From TrEMBL:
<dbReference type="InterPro" id="IPR011006">
    <property type="entry name" value="CheY-like_superfamily"/>
</dbReference>
<dbReference type="InterPro" id="IPR052893">
    <property type="entry name" value="TCS_response_regulator"/>
</dbReference>
<protein>
    <submittedName>
        <fullName>Response regulator</fullName>
    </submittedName>
</protein>
<dbReference type="Pfam" id="PF00072">
    <property type="entry name" value="Response_reg"/>
</dbReference>
<dbReference type="InterPro" id="IPR001789">
    <property type="entry name" value="Sig_transdc_resp-reg_receiver"/>
</dbReference>
<dbReference type="GO" id="GO:0000160">
    <property type="term" value="P:phosphorelay signal transduction system"/>
</dbReference>
<keyword id="KW-0597">Phosphoprotein</keyword>
<feature type="modified residue" description="4-aspartylphosphate">
    <location>
        <position position="74"/>
    </location>
</feature>
<feature type="domain" description="Response regulatory">
    <location>
        <begin position="15"/>
        <end position="141"/>
    </location>
</feature>
Length: 148
């Protein structure tokens, strides 16, 4: 954890918000960002409620500013799941246009359809394997384009 608030250290740094309750998956994303030299501040939240607090600057959380360019979102989380979070940000005019990539263990068609109906930019099935999965490479390429 940083001693200084990120906005003081990186006042104009572009960012990505990872909403993920699994520590291993969070570390995989962090390591992948380093490996692919993604030059964005990576923020993380354990569930949808924590993510909303970071986006809105509520409940004692400092707001991420500027807003993240992309949100990486798990579907199955405690307190507020990914579908509930996605529906909530799509109703908020300030947050509605942020591109969202789903990262989940769910390969169920209903989950994919619900996510697509809420305008996701990509759908990535876990386990996260940035080395060998063609879907992951395609998704990382799309993510990379969005972040440029």
């Amino acid at each position: 954890m940083c001693i200084f608030p990120p906005h003081l250290l990186f006042p104009l740094m572009r960012s990505v918000l990872l909403v993920e309750d699994d520590f291993f998956d969070t570390m995989t994303v962090k390591k992948s960002f380093e490996k692919f030299s993604v030059q964005h501040q990576l923020y993380s939240a354990f569930n949808g409620l924590e993510a909303l607090d970071l986006l809105r600057g509520q409940n004692g959380a400092e707001a991420i500013r500027p807003l993240p360019e992309v949100i990486l979102l798990d579907l199955n989380m405690p307190k507020m799941n990914g579908h509930e979070f996605l529906a909530e940000i799509r109703k908020d005019p300030e947050l509605a246009d942020i591109p969202v990539f789903i990262i989940t263990t769910s390969a169920m068609d209903v989950d994919r359809l619900n996510a697509q109906n809420l305008g996701v930019s990509g759908y990535i099935i876990k386990p996260l394997d940035f080395e060998t999965s063609p879907d992951m490479v395609d998704s990382m390429s799309l993510l990379e384009k969005l972040l440029k």
